[in-house]
Amino acid sequence: MKQFNIIITTCLFLLFSSQAFAEDISEAEIFSGLINVSKDGTGFVRFKPCGSCNSIFLNITTATKTYINGVETGLLEARQRTKPGFVSLQYSPAEKEVLAIGFLK
To answer: In sequence order, what are the residues at sequence separation of 6 or more whose Cβ sits closer than 8 angstroms to the Cβ of residue 24?
Structure first.
């Protein structure tokens, strides 16, 4: 069931992200503890996409979309309503910006 939710969330990311057709987008699954968020809903993520890769530093902006089980919500609300675990991350490597974050509840 969780795999199904991840697939649905990923499809929704592609459907609702207007930038999906404008630039290259990468995806990753990371632990939610790697997401650092300030009180205004912005922040950053730092993670390693593979064991031998360098760390990637990405900015979370007010334009970053956040989903819980495929339903759009605010980032601060998503962090409060979900338990620590893995999240789906969609980002632009060129812009070094997170486009969407998908939480599973």
So the answer is: 92, 93, 94
